From TrEMBL:
One record GO biological process: protoporphyrinogen IX biosynthetic process
Enzyme class, spelled out: isomerase
GO MF annotations in UniProt: glutamate-1-semialdehyde 2,1-aminomutase activity; pyridoxal phosphate binding; transaminase activity
Source species: Desulfotomaculum copahuensis
E.C. designation(s): 5.4.3.8
NCBIfam families the UniProt entry points to: hemL, PRK00062.1
Family classification: Belongs to the class-III pyridoxal-phosphate-dependent aminotransferase family. HemL subfamily.
Descriptive protein name: Glutamate-1-semialdehyde 2,1-aminomutase
Residues bearing PTM N6-(pyridoxal phosphate)lysine: K251
Record keywords, A-Z: Cytoplasm, Isomerase, Porphyrin biosynthesis, Pyridoxal phosphate
Length: 414
């Protein structure tokens, strides 16, 4: 396998050493093949908001297995998940299930182009929307970590239709629309950026996106693959009260199995085949096992108090980390929205790609390695989020903060 991995973010290229090979997970614990145990803050990169092997999810999967693994035909289960998404996500009236976040964003943008009859799209520097050609331009996540935000293999003609704008910068976007507004099919945005580290939208930024897209007849697409059912049950759009035209989902709605989804206004979604002419399909889309894990996860997330608990746990971790950094005299900027946070090794505020890139990645690498040897598994990159789950106990969070004291000291020596 290239780099020994099936997804670049899993390699330890940015932090040194070899990736940990995982044997199993239980709650917030992760066990490697050498018998070491870690407190897991990756959570499979976001889906595992309940932790590993939640008993209700596993029981639902066992029952589902008895009925078959895939039919390639309609099932009640997928309808149930579609209904739950429509009732949960404020702007979604119709939804199509796919198999990954990449498929969701790729399909949503095809739909936006088909619906508007325009070709150009606007994305933001440092946001990651999967690996479709036209989205791998100044992209975040592994592309940013590895220093290849614009991938070879993306034809120049394709790249020419993607316009990049700085995150949190209405003035530049205003200029882009003034120059190209009539050709822009859509603006796609992570409403809380999570792929250049965590960068919250500044006050008014999302409402500005809503206003300017409407003004020019372009669609607004929220990529809520990471934020959906995480920063609130109804995603960032519920948390910030902004309704996009289309929404992309993934991660949590599959409960740890491969699922994605895109949805939005009925009038737009009715253009998708076979209701309309914009083609998009999938052999395993709406897969019963994946849908079952997603439904079981969402059912638990609906319990009263769930998001208050996530907030409490996340604040406890964030406060502890900030204190540990201050004790060690290491300047950090801690950004957090709900159960996703990022510790940037910089004393500047981080509001966009450029300010994220000012972080001291050598310090992050030292921090990461000391945390790992102290039994804490973080994403092996400065530019990824820390994901808190309901499975993290107060004791595990306190242990994490204890490990961080040592790790900040190690980072401070760089
Ligand atoms: N959009 C966002 C915001 C993401 O965070 C990711 C993955 N981290 C994707 C899209 C792509 O999803 P997938 O890896 O499932 O293709």
């Amino acid at each position: 396998m290239p780099g020994g991995v099936n997804s670049p973010v899993r390699a330890f290229q940015a932090v040194g050493g070899q990736p940990v090979f995982i044997a199993r997970g239980e709650g917030a614990w992760l066990y490697d093949v050498d018998g070491n145990r870690y407190i897991d803050y990756v959570g499979s990169w976001g889906p595992l908001i309940l932790g590993h092997r939640h008993p209700e999810v596993i029981a639902a999967l066992r029952d589902c297995l008895e009925t078959g693994t895939s039919f390639g035909a309609p099932t009640a289960l997928e309808t149930e998940l579609a209904r739950e998404i429509v009732s949960a996500i404020p702007s979604v009236e119709m939804v199509r299930l796919v198999n990954s976040g990449t498929e969701a964003t790729m399909s949503a943008l095809r739909l936006a182009r088909g619906y508007t009859g325009r070709n150009r799209i606007v994305k933001f520097e440092g946001c990651y929307h999967g690996h479709a050609d036209f989205l791998l331009i100044k992209a975040g996540s592994g592309a940013l970590t590895l220093g290849v935000p614009t991938s070879p293999g993306v034809p120049a003609d394709t790249a020419a239709n993607t316009i990049n704008a700085p995150y949190n910068d209405p003035d530049t976007l205003e200029q882009i629309f003034a120059a190209h507004g009539q050709d822009i099919a859509a603006v796609i945005v992570e409403p809380v950026a999570g792929n250049m580290g965590v960068v919250p939208p500044q006050e008014g930024f999302l409402s500005f996106l809503r206003e300017i897209t409407r003004r020019y007849g372009a669609l607004l697409i929220f990529d809520e693959v990471m934020t959906g059912f995480r920063v609130a049950y109804g995603g960032a759009q519920e948390r910030f009260g902004i309704n996009p035209d289309l929404t992309c989902l993934g991660k949590i709605i599959g409960g740890g199995l491969p699922v994605g989804a895109y949805g939005g206004k009925r009038e737009i979604m009715e253009r998708v085949a076979p209701a309309g002419p914009v083609y998009q399909a999938g052999t395993l889309s709406g897969n019963p096992l994946a849908v079952t894990a997603g439904l079981a996860t969402l059912r638990i997330l609906q319990h009263p108090g769930t998001y208050a608990e996530l907030e409490r746990k996340s604040a406890r971790l964030a406060d502890g980390l900030a204190r540990a950094a201050a004790d060690a005299g290491v300047p950090v900027t801690l950004n957090r929205v709900g159960a996703m946070l990022c510790l940037f090794f910089t004393d500047h505020p981080v509001t966009d790609y450029e300010s994220a890139c000012r972080s001291n990645t050598a310090r992050f690498a030292a921090f990461f390695r000391t945390m790992l040897s102290g039994g804490v598994y973080l994403a092996p990159s400065q530019f990824e989020a820390v994901f808190i789950s309901l499975a993290h106990s107060g004791e595990q969070i306190d242990r994490t903060v204890e490990a961080a004291h040592k790790a900040f000291a190690a980072a401070g020596r760089i």
